[in-house]
Each structure stands twice: as C-alpha cells, then as structure tokens.
Amino acid sequence: MSRQHQRHHQTQQQQQLQQQQQQQQQQLTVQQQQQQQLLMAEHAAAAEAAELFDLLCVATTMRQILALHRTMCEAVGLRPSPLNDYYPKLKAKVRSWKAAALWKKFDARAAHRVYGKGTACAGTRVLVIGAGPCGLRTAIEAQLLGAKVVVLEKRDRISRNNVLHLWPFVITDLRNLGAKKFYGKFCAGSIDHISIRQLQCMLLKVALLLGVEIHEGVSFEHALEPGGDAVGWRAAVTPADHPVSHYEFDVLIGADGKRNMLDFRRKEFRGKLAIAITANFVNKKTEAEAKVEEISGVAFIFNQAFFKELYGKTGIDLENIVYYKDETHYFVMTAKKHSLIDKGVIIEDMADPAELLAGPNVDTQKLHDYAREAAEFSTQYQMPNLEFAVNHYGKPDVAMFDFTSMFAAEMSCRVIVRKGCRLLQCLVGDSLLEPFWPTGSGCARGFLSSMDAAYAIKLWSNPQNSTLGVLAQRESIYRLLNQTTPDTLQRDISAYTVDPATRYPNLNRESVNSWQVKHLIDTDDPSVLEQTFMDTQHAGPHVETPGRRKRRSGDSMPQGASLLRWIAAQLHSHQFVPELKEPSDVLRNGRVLCGLISRYRPDLIEFAVTKDMSPLECNELAFAVLERELGVKRIMSAKQSLELTDIESRIWLNYLDQICELFRGEIPHIKHPKMDFSDLRQKHRINHTHAPPDFSKLLQMKPKAKSPMQDAVDVPTTVQRRSVLEEERAKRQRRHEQLLNSGGAGTGTAGAAGGGSGVGGATAGGGNLHHVGQNDTPRRSKKRRQTSDKTANIVQLILRTALCHELSTAISAFESSINEVSSISVQVVSSPPLHLYVTPHPPPTPY
Description:
By secondary structure, the chain is of the alpha/beta class. The strands form six sheets. The protein has a seven-stranded mixed sheet with strand order 5-2-1-8-17-16-18, with helices on one face. It has a five-stranded antiparallel sheet with strand order 11-12-13-10-14.
C-alpha cells in the first residue's frame, strides 16, 4: 500500500508540475503575443508618422500643415512642449531617411553652445503674436533656447504673394534650418528671393517640428494682469473662450506688423513723396515665361534710355522697377505722381499723401492697366495674357501705397511688474522697424530683430540679470538695427547666432545706461528700479523645477478653497461639479481627478471610459497615471482617498496642489476636426513614385537597327564603338603602309626592266598597280567587314559573360536575403534565358 501511495503521490506531483509548466508556457505565450502586438503597434505608428512627415514636407497650406502635424503627434503620442521634452522623442519615433537628413540639420543647430543644450530658457513661457516670417523666426529661436513657446495667428491661411529679397546671411540661416528639405528650389543658383507664402510655410514646418505650439484663427486683444485664480500674465483673445486664454506667460512678443497691438509709441520718418505699386501675376510656368529674365533692380539714373522709351511709348513714368520670378510674377515699381494722374489712376491731385492714395481717389481698373502695361513693356512683351494673382480677399493682387512714410518704434522692449509677476514685451519685424522697399531690407532686418529679441529672452530668463540691465542691453543693440547693410555686418555669416557679437562688429552693449531705461518699467515694486546687476556670461537660469509655478503666499483665500474653486472652474461643464462642496469631495467623488487629467491630457485618460467605473476604480486609475506619466508620486491608496481618516489634511491638500500646479497655466486640449489627406497622398504618390525597373530585356542580344554593335546590355554607345574603331583604324594604317611599300618596289623593277625606256616602264608599272588596286578594293572591304563582325561578336561575348557573372552573384545574394526575411521562396537560374521561380512559404503557426 505504501508503494501504491508513493506512486500515486509522485503521479500527482508530476501532474501538478506539468500543469505549472503549461501555465508558465501559456503565460509566456501571452506575454510574447502582447510584446509582439506592442511591437507591431509601434511599427505601425512609426510607419504612419513617417508617411505623415513626408506629406508635411510637401504640404503648401496652413490648414494642411497644422492638421498633418497634429495627426502625426497623435500617432506617436506627443504634444507640443519645450525642446528637450519634445524633439528627442519625435526624432526617435520618425526615422525615415528624409527625416534623418532634417534631424541632422536641427541637431547641428541645437548643439551650439549659445542654447545651453536647450536649457538656457528652461521654465520661461513665451507668447508670440503673429505667425509671419519674423514671428515664426523668433519662436524657433526661443524654442531652441528651451522655452515653452505658443504662437497666435489671426488668419487661418497663408496668402501673401509678395516676394522678399534675401540678404546672404538670411539664405545661409534658412539653409541651416533645412529650407531645402521643404522647398528644393530654395535660392538655387544665383536666386536671392522667395515669396512670403513659401517662406512662411517653411518656417511654420520648422517651428512645429521643434515643438512650438501654434493656434490659428485666434486674435490677441490685450494682456491680463495676474489676479484671481491666475498666477501669471494671460491674454485676452478672440474668441474669448478659446483655451489659449488659460496660458500664462513671462514674455510677450509683438510680431503682428503694423497692427502693433502692444501699443508701443512710434516715430515717423517722412521723405519726398514716393508712390510704390506692387503687382503679382499668375506664373503658368510655360516655356515662354521661363525664358524671361528677371530684373533685379533698374533705376532711372542707370538706364535712362529704358525709362524714357517706356514713358514715350506708354506714358508711364517710373523711377525704378524690380521683377522677380517665383510662384508668381512679382513686380514692384516706383511711379511718379504726374504719370498716375495723366493715366487716370489717381482721380484728383491732393497735397496730403493719405488723401491722395485713399480708396475713393484711385481708379482700380486703371491701376490694374497701369501695372500690367508696365510689366509687359519691361519684359519686352514676352509674357502675353498676363493674369493677376488673387490676394486673401479674392481680388487682384495689386497695391499702391506711399512708402516714404516709415515708422519705427521708439523702444524695442518694456517691462510690466504686477504682484511679483514680471512680463517682458518685445517687438520684432515690421512692428519694430518698417522696411524701406527699394533697399530690400525688410526680411533681413526682421530676422536680425528676431535674434535680438531671442537674446533678450535668454538674458531675461537668467535670475543673475536685473530687469534694468536686460532692458539697457536690448536698447543698446536696437540702436544698431537701422544702420545695418550686408556690408556692415560680420563677414562670417555661417557663425551668426542669437548672440549679437556674432552679427554686429564693434558691438557696444553698454551704449545705453540703466538710468536711461527706467521709464520702460511699469512696476508696483520700487525695488526693481534699484537693481542693475548683469551676468552676460551665464549660460542658463538657475531653475530648480522649470515650468512649475507656486501659489502666491499673499493670497488671503485658504489653500483648500482656492484649489476647489480652480478645479470647479476647469470642470464647469460636468454634471458632478455642483456636488463639490468641500476640498475632500475632490477625492471622494472619484471622477474629478480623471476629468481634470482628461481635460489637459486626453491621450492618458478618456473621460468616457470612467462612466461605468466606481470612485475607487477612478481614483486608482488617476493615481497610477499621475505617478507613471506625470511624475506626481502617490501618497495614499485609492481606498484611503475615499475615507481620508488616516491621512492629515495638510498632506492630501499638498497632493492636490501638486496636481493643480501641474496643469495651471497650461492650455487645455483642443479637439480639432479631422482632415482628409487622401488627395494629398495621391498627389504625393504621383509626384514621388518611380516606375519599377524592367529587367525583361536585360540579356537579350538582338542588335538595334542603327548599329550592329548595339546590344540590349546597358553599355554606353561610345564605349562599344571606341574599341572597334581604334582597332580598325590601326589595321587600315598598317595596310596603307604595306601598299605604299609594295607599290614603290614594283615601280623600281619596271623601270629597270625597261632599259632605255625608263619613263615608259615606270608609267606602265604605275598603270598595273592602279588596276590591281581597283580589283582589290571589293576584296579588302569584304575582309574588313568580316573582321569587324568577328570583333563585335568577341566584344558581345565578353560583355555578356561579365554581366551574367555579376548578375548571378547579385541575384544569389538577393535570393538568400529574401528567403530569410520574407514569406516566399526564390530560386534563380542564371543560365540564359534567365528564370526566376517564386514559391510561397506555408503560413506561420500562430502563437
């Protein structure tokens, strides 16, 4: 019995061991399946992101660019954020060859020491008004410095057709940012101009790929001082309920052109009346249009005959004219007033330039005729049937204005301090300094002002620098801007950075003293006006927890009540908000934390999922996400959060405060409508898909009709013919020499045999040679053809043998690699004719 019992016991142990092994095997199989599914999902997301990246590079409208970028971020699980939190993750997710070439450009730029590895402005928040070229260029530099950057754009499309002249440093700067990756024709050859629309598209893509957050269709109204639930400065916008109104910032950049919503005082420079006309015509890209030469700039004093002929034949009197060929045919000219009046463009002469060029005093149709006639004459009528391009209003893109009145801001920046919160306001681009059209300086000086503003942001982010010191240095640099030309800047244009010393020679950072800029500070703290220290050598700010903002200690409201009010304001649309009477209800309700996370990060928690979950399950989910994804360490279990009996109120209130500070001042998630990219995908495939190579005639030896040496083997004609011709030439030379030698010997013999009649003998011998040569000509031609055919056959055989050997080696490698990674079997028989056998493998056994 004991033996039977032992056997039974051993059998049970073996069965249990087998069951355990089976369970472990099943668990391992499940884990492998899960890992495989995750890996497949990652590969699918990476493939989708790579495709969206390729489409983003070729997109040409603002809506397409923004929609593609948002879809790509969703595919890889990212959202716009500071450089070090966004760019490395995007680079790791998108790994196509085209993306890798662009990442190399970005890496080289971001590695410059001036950016401090993306930490020079860590913790600084920037709001840029306007997504024009200068606004986007400022946003890019601030992003590279490590700041959180948000851009507001009033329009929802890019529609400006005018063409900008580019100084050499601007071309180099844009190339270093990867402009050629987005627009292959950028400044090819000697071209030194680009349309505003194309430039905006390129800079928009660069800013988005670096992590800048851009919101279209939002208009800035004014800045809101800190107060209530707001810890920092915010913006009043239109529409008023747009989520960007929650964004809190430290730096405000005005890049909205002449609108100047920041109300900086400006001074006017007025010269002699000069009326400019700009016109954009549709570029149909025909052969006739391609032959028309550009006019980089013709002034009256340098080509008087041209302008006199223009006036004599058309009655159009100009001082200068420029023609650039880009996406449109762009003309800009300076017209004389008497000519405009004589042609009926200006209805009535007036002394005030504003009244002279006002809408009611201008005949629009005659203005169109004037611009078209000037364009046709200056291009020698090589572009018939010119059609005007349309502007963003849907009207012909023709404009007339007085450019002798230029405005410049009296100061480039100012500071407002309220309740301990500092706000730096800076102007860039046309908001700061209007360009003088004939010099083509608008884009170049605009980019210089963008870099200067970015350097001011870097100084501002460093607590070692005083407010007065930052303002004084910024104003010292601003005084140089109006004096800049391509010749007065530093010679090494490839070394330009935000540091003004790399761009301005003989820079004096202290030309403006601290006491001269005190009027630029509006503060409720007088101590700010007494601090003048500066540390220009410091690379970055001393920020322990960048991006975190603490509640002001001066608030009279208790911490719990303040938290409850802020949470209720964020979740006001939810039905459970009226039930929140006390701060503890935030935890006991269960769905509050999930709703708060879903408002800002719906990619982490979808609020609809919590509909059927209990408060215990909701809190457990929220605590896990906060700890795993957002770095807020858990202090209690989900069960304890519902009771709150064993935990001090101070502890769980501080926990709620950490959660609120995590989202306070951020922009809630905006749900954008999905966009259909099928048309863009189809267009991209048509433009970038090449037909597969055809090897069907690779080894065929059928000669072409033009030459017996032509073969289907892809060998250049010159290579085929050169060896044969040289050999034939050498043979003909040898035969000719032999004939000459034999002819000389025959003549001498005949003369000797003739005795006294030597002359007659020589003549007879010459006649015999002549007859022999005539009879031998067909024979030699036939032999030459036979030799040529033999040589051709030998060359063909050599080429065929070498090609078959190389092809066999390549196909063998192809066969082995395909059999390893693919679900088909490939067998190649390389002896002519070439055969390729493809056999599918049996489907793999599922896990």
